[in-house]
Specification:
3 helices, single chain
Length: 105
């Protein structure tokens, strides 16, 4: 739940539980940026790996670790003005065309 718990958050969680009883935990976040950052943190905790792959040219939120390479895949830090080098060291920018139609690389 968000830090500002509201009765409608509880009602939504109850609806999710009613229609998807296999869902054991449910978290609502305030933005897509916050959701992407939480997903990265969960993936790192689950895999034990520090690096992540993001698809270049797509918008993944406004956090420093994801916004670089937003407009043109492969430009890397050329679009990272104002972002400290350490923030872009671990995410890897992949081209959208590396994925085939089955979802594999």
């Amino acid at each position: 739940m968000t830090g500002l718990f509201h009765e409608y958050e509880l009602k939504l969680a109850q609806l999710v539980n009613r229609f998807m009883p296999a869902v054991e935990m449910f978290r609502m976040l305030g933005s897509g940026t916050e959701s992407a950052m939480a997903a990265i943190r969960a993936a790192r905790a689950f895999t034990g790996k520090a690096k992540v792959i993001k698809i270049g040219g797509a918008y993944h939120g406004w956090s420093d670790q994801l916004v670089f390479g937003l407009h043109i895949p492969g430009t890397g830090r050329r679009e990272a003005t104002g972002i400290p080098r350490g923030r872009t060291a671990r995410p890897r920018n992949a081209f959208p065309t590396i994925w085939d139609s089955s979802g594999g690389a």
